[in-house]
Amino acid sequence: MGIRVNLVTFLLLFCTVGHGQESEFISGTLIDTVNTEPIPFASIRVKNRAVGVISNNDGSFRIPIKFRELNDTLEITSMGYDSREIVIGRLLSDQINQIYLKPMLIQLDEVTLSASKKRRRGRNDNDRPVTAAEIISKAIEKIPLNYPFNPQSYVGYYRDYQWKAGGYTNLNEAIVEVFDKGFGTLDYEDSNTRIYEYSRNANFPTDSLSERLYDYGEYKTKTIPKAYLNSYGGNEFVILRIMDAIRNYNTFSYSYVDHLDTDFVKNHDFSLEDDTSLDGMPLFVIDIYKHNRKFMVRGKIYISKDNFEIVKLEYATYDALLGTRKISKTSRKIEDRLLYRTAVEYKKEDNKMFPSYISFSNKFEVKVPPVFTVKNVFVDFEKKLFEIAFNRVPMHFKVLKDKNYNISYKGRGIDIEKVVLADSVTVHLYPKMNLGDQALEIFLAEPEDIGKDDFRVIMDNIIDMDGNKLDYSETYSLMQFREFFVQQRKPVRQYPGKHLYMDKNWPIFQDQPIVKPDNYSDFWMNTPLRNEGAIIK
Q1: Is the CB of residue 390 less than 8 Å from the CB of residue 425?
Q2: What are the tens digits of pLDDT across the range 370-380?
Q3: Cβ-based neighbours of 346, under 8 Å, separated by 6 or more
Q4: How does pLDDT run across 298-315, given as a tens digit for each residue?
Q5: Which residues, in sequence order, are CB contacts of 320 under 8 Å at separation 6+?
Q6: How much is the pTM?
């Protein structure tokens, strides 16, 4: 009879497949004319057809080639840039088209300049907010007027993926429709989602370790440093929806923003920056800042100057400790300390603000299973010894040193008299059995009376023949992204049957109901692109 401890080794699957250009799409990349940087999260709409897409993190996008055959035009808008229209017929289908946008020249008026500073109100502007905090408070107060409280549905492109060593991995894509009963309802409880199509993109690498659920248990195989994220049953789309602090303005969204309507203003410092605009709408730009010695928050909120609609919210939380030195507000090393970042943008249609996109990303660490481990620890009552079996051949001069073993039973140490090789991967440890030695209590007892939880076995300074340290686990860092880009918005006239809804507590890519509607061809997956091509000036 024996006490055995078994360790399981996980395998890492990592493969790469070439990514070819699909002939049924036209692809492009949006680029800033001044600094030649890509422009992410820009709106690309097919004119007069109420469908479109949002550019990826690298500024790339793609649209079905059928719109060129219909002689359509693209309308491109992005915060802080001049809007642009391009006839789709000008775009090439055999390479990625580079499209340049010009940064907008902002003409600041007198009201904007005075509003950027604290000043004494006059008799005619008592109700006009002056400071940044007052502008935000006014915008939150007007959410019930500016956002839809009647049911709406949003069809769009969803994806979750990870960014590892400069490339995408574990890319999941879907076309989904969200049925939102309105801002007067609880989003998590009352909204539902229908999946039109799901695809695990095999053209990008996969990493089986990093795609597992977060693990904050004993082994911590996948964790977020200095933060905790509930997996909600593994459904990444549900996590993403919760990170829309505007939609969830009166419920908890994430730390420090907390309840947007009651906590946001009191939890942060704000300052007005130069104004900007989006598609002709003039916007206040307000910097968001918080530093509590352990964490730092940086972000921006964009609010319309006419009706105080919140158009966009960018929010990032950082670990502010770098050794013993705090990261300052302007530190260049701040991105090295990123914990999570979220961005959400709304657009105005029919005098109400509707979602355009939401993005949520967080850094996480994966612990790689150790190469060199212990397979079994066995108590041999007949021979009165401890047997330890390794999964690989250990370095003999290391494994035979008794001082490299620390064994205790019920809190008392057991002295080892000698260590003997039983075979190439197994050692026998003979304990001292003199009067008063703790080993006597073990071997004079009945085997069934010995509890394995009473044992503690620690081994140190043991390596295998290749130099791998016993039970040493390497870790590597990745970024997890979840993004949803609205392609079409419409009022809800009839809800689908409940059997068609996604199970919120189950991963989006496992055994979910998938049914394509008759108009499915109106939507498409904006799969990320990484190549360069033609220039459209």
Answers
A1: yes
A2: 999 999 999 99
A3: 147, 246, 309, 310, 311, 312, 353, 354, 355, 356
A4: 999 999 999 999 999 999
A5: 291, 292, 293, 294, 295, 296, 326, 327, 337
A6: 0.77
